[in-house]
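Final report, Chapter 2: Outcomes

The project's central promise was a pipeline that accepts a single protein chain and returns its three-dimensional structure in a standardized token representation, suitable for archiving and comparison. That pipeline is now operational. To close this chapter, we reproduce one record exactly as it appears in the project archive, with the input sequence first and the structure output second.
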Amino acid sequence: MEDATGSATYAEQRRLAAIMFTDIVGFSRQMSADESRMLRLLDVHNQVIEQAVAEHHGRVIKTIGDAFLVDFPSVVNAVQCAQQIHARFRIHNAERAKPEQIHIRVGIHLGDIVQRDGDVFGDGVNIASRLQNLAEPDTICISQIVYQEVSKKGDLGTVVSLGKPQLKNIAERFQVYALLPETPKGIRETLQLQRLKLSRRISTAQWVALLGLILISAGIVTGRYFLHPLRSPQAPLPLPDKPSIVVLPFDNMSNDPEQEYFSDGITEDITSDLSRISSLFVIARNSAFTYKGKAVKVQDVSREMGVRYVLEGSVRRSDNQVRITAQLIVATTGEHLWAERYDRPFKDIFALQDEIVQKIVTTLKLQLTMQEEGYLIRKHTDNLEAYDAFLRGVEYYWRTTKESNAQARQLFEKALALDPHYAEAYAWQGWTYALEWIWRWSADPQNLGRALALAQQALALDDSLPFAHSSLGWLYAQQRQYDQAIAEEERAVALDPNNADSYTRQGEVFNFAGRPEDALRALAQAMRLNPRYSPFELVQLGWAYSSNGRYAEAITMLQDAISRNPNFMAAHPLLANSYLVQWVSQQSPATQTLEPAVAAAQRALALSDSFHLNHMTLGSVYLWQKQYEQAIAEMERTVALAPTMAGSYAALAEVLSRVGRTEDALEAAAQALRLKPFFPDGHLAGVGIAYAVAGHYEEAQAPLQRYVSRYPNWLPGHLMLAAVYSELGKEAEARAEAAEVLRINPKFSLEIHKQRVPIKDPAVLERHIAALRKSGLK
């Protein structure tokens, strides 16, 4: 009807109602593929739902394509109706091929609704719709209030808590539950259940970010993130075989403390210019800045840094003038080689920096290549205001907080607005996005892409920027493009042979790429250039040692890192694994048990229960303790937490094979091979062992061969290959692998191995030992 003004009027009713929202999984996609088939299935779908709704006293408010919005007098009616619908579709699907099956998702909520002109609005409708979107195929998602009401009045069957997810456009967060159609059976359904428990809490992209955070822990970014540097070495560091120098932080002599960024910036620029001279050895700014604000003797600096020369000075900036004083000192004796005071207009700041560097080059009689001479006369930018904004941005960047990172980015953006060709500003702006991704300060999935694009933009403007090449290499590594990553890191250290951060990044990329020997070399150079290195370098070094079969050294490095930062998450699973493989390889002290590995694995889990590598590590420890059920549970949780990672399935495959669940093991191994590994070939050890223990010797050969070719000092791989070759009648190859076992550990004992190796079936164990004995091991 209409009122006197001609406007429509509607009856409006507000009430509490149980709302059910349903839709067909993949309906739009399937309609595009075969419209006639989907219209026929839609008729079947509609008939099943309408019949069930009528039987449970519901009312269909409206349908939108394949979606039903239904109102019930109670939540019990709603849940029972949804369960009946699922049951009928299970019967329907059991008798039909996959294209003829119907799978639906259901969301149910109890809330206020408003009825107007035959339609329904309100939070009850909105939340039910969001819950339906959250549901997995063939499951029912219910809100906390529905769960509380229905659980009092009957059995809900298999219920899985999904935590308190953030529902789109819904301010309140509450517990959400999934109702499964039946109890899971077998390995596949169990893994699907584990995955469901976690899939709504963290995405695959977030797992990649978290992996980056834990393994990188952002120490790679600046070298200053861990505020627990090593103590100064007790013994003096030896002097390099070339002139060596440290540039101490220049004092800010301006009346304005806010000018600190400028004096720090001048220090960094001079350090960077000197660092690019290959005939000079230059200590990293991170170690140099540990002396900031301290009265130190240059002789002590020489001993602690292992350098012959020290450059120190001060900066005073006033209006458009700048005064820099600098003095070069022979630190071993305290002799002053030269001291100068420079008073110049601010517009000549770049020429002034060049003059100081050239003075050092001349005094130390350094020989420069033509390329290095070109670097020293190249300007950062012609725009002094852009340069000032850039220096301010760098100062905020070093603070490494969410807020300071945002301020740094704004200042880099300002510098680029003033000079759109300022290559360094692009590189540093890009790294603020990388930091945001690493530290998860933002959930924006585009941050890594932005960082990559800005690094590439910087290099398009100036291909000689070491920082941009190093950043790009690290970013390529996160995308598993290891060849490109390695090439960029090599370019970075060629352009700046004294940049400790570039060597650290290079070491990490080598670790990711499965090249531990190269990682050790890069990290050694990084730590010599930066004697006050952080726990991050120690963890990377521990990783490289462990991958190279040098477990005692790995354990020492990782223990040192943990003593300086007990909450460094990556250190604990690496330490546990080093203890474990050392024990498995019979390279640990005779009295040592698995207790140190257990303690480290449990500490890792205490720090983060949601990181898959922690569960994988604990599962491996349980396996070698022959606590088989606990091992399987941990590996299943590993897969649930990281279902797209090949290593998760490979670890599960090995455990299942060792306990005699051959069919499930082979299924998990096949899935591992289908997925792309995060670390090259990192999944092949588990896959190869799973095949070997299962008696599939032909299939075991290739993955084990490839793994030990990448990690030649991994004794368990050679040991299993020896058994595989023996079983295949390849006696020469078996003896060669046995020789590799004895090369790694001349005291290897087959009897101790028999006592320790976790193979549950006695017959399989005896066959394994017999094969090893046949290869020549005793």
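Archive annotation: Confidence is low (pLDDT under 50) at residues 1-10, 186-191, 198-210, 213-233.
This record, like all others produced under the grant, will remain available to the consortium after the project formally closes.
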